[in-house]
Design brief:
Jelly Rolls, Arc Repressor Mutant, subunit A, 3 domains, 10 helices, 9 strands, globular
């Protein structure tokens, strides 16, 4: 199926003739955003080697830690936040075209094309599978060292990883119609997510945001909750609270300044909201970090 390109995250590959890349990422602050809400039509693996994080996929949050693998299927809406002060992970991004055959064979028709079209999906979080982690680690090593024939080795590891995922972690299949509708909703709401991220300290109304999506208030609210699993108010408050937690841990701003800078006009409402989401008060959070 043809994918809409206008709102895809840019995915420049180092080698367009061998479209795979790996990022080694570290995060040294609790609460820092690893990546904002976005989607792309590539298959992506996140392999965590140290620390812990929260990765949200299609509105479902996953707590991950050392040794876990996150599978981001094509067109999954995803978002990540560090939950420690020393996080290390690898992000492996694969253009599925790397595995396409130049002829119509059983591998192409049974597996590669359905994966590329979201007709085969994989479980989002994999824990404690030594075999798949070994393949991922070896693939990363091959890509980093780039010895003679590394392309052959990487393709072999990718086929092995997909085989394990198919046998152990294959999940529900989307129909073509379901996939088209999900893509349509993602495209419609991407400007909304971007606007909220850029303007969260400001007053944001449903009328304003629904206008960005070209929807009525009712349909906007329904589809927003369907995509994120939250109401628009809860989504904005969660973002503001996460931003304020980061400032409590890492800045010398006082609590009133932090409340105002993250969109809370009432310090008492901020304190109640913070305790509701984080189960401690802002002052207790600040005290724990001696700032």
């Amino acid at each position: 199926m043809e994918r809409p390109l206008s709102l895809l995250e840019p995915m420049d590959m180092p080698n367009r003739f061998f479209p795979i890349k790996v990022h080694h990422t570290t995060a040294k602050e609790y609460g820092i955003t690893l990546f904002n809400h976005h989607w792309h039509n590539h298959l992506e693996f996140l392999y965590f080697t140290k620390g812990s994080a929260m990765i949200e996929l299609n509105s479902v949050p996953y707590e991950v830690s050392e040794g876990d693998l996150v599978v981001i299927n094509s067109n999954d809406l995803h978002y990540g936040v560090s939950q420690c002060d020393d996080l290390v992970y690898y992000a492996m991004i694969i253009d599925i075209k790397l595995l396409h055959s130049h002829s119509i064979d059983a591998i192409e028709t049974k597996f590669i094309t359905p994966i590329s079209q979201n007709r085969i999906l994989f479980a989002s979080k994999i824990t404690g599978d030594a075999e798949v982690i070994s393949c991922v680690s070896s693939l990363i090593q091959e890509l980093n060292q780039r010895e003679l024939g590394y392309e052959l080795s990487i393709k072999s590891y990718l086929y092995r990883i997909l085989t394990i995922l198919l046998r152990r972690y294959g999940t529900n299949k989307l129909s073509t119609e379901e996939d088209q509708q999900r893509l349509k909703n993602l495209e419609r709401f991407t400007p909304v997510f971007q606007y909220i991220e850029e303007h969260y300290p400001e007053d944001l109304s449903v009328d304003q945001l629904s206008g960005l999506a070209g929807l009525s208030r009712f349909h906007f609210s329904r589809l927003f909750k369907e995509l994120t699993g939250r109401t628009i108010t809860d989504y904005i408050n969660t973002l503001r609270i996460n931003k304020s937690e980061y400032l409590l841990r890492n800045s010398r701003m006082n609590i009133s300044e932090i409340a105002l800078s993250t969109g809370f006009k009432d310090i008492y409402y901020f304190s109640r909201s913070f305790k509701k989401y984080k189960h401690v008060s802002p002052s207790e959070m600040r005290k724990n970090f001696h700032i």
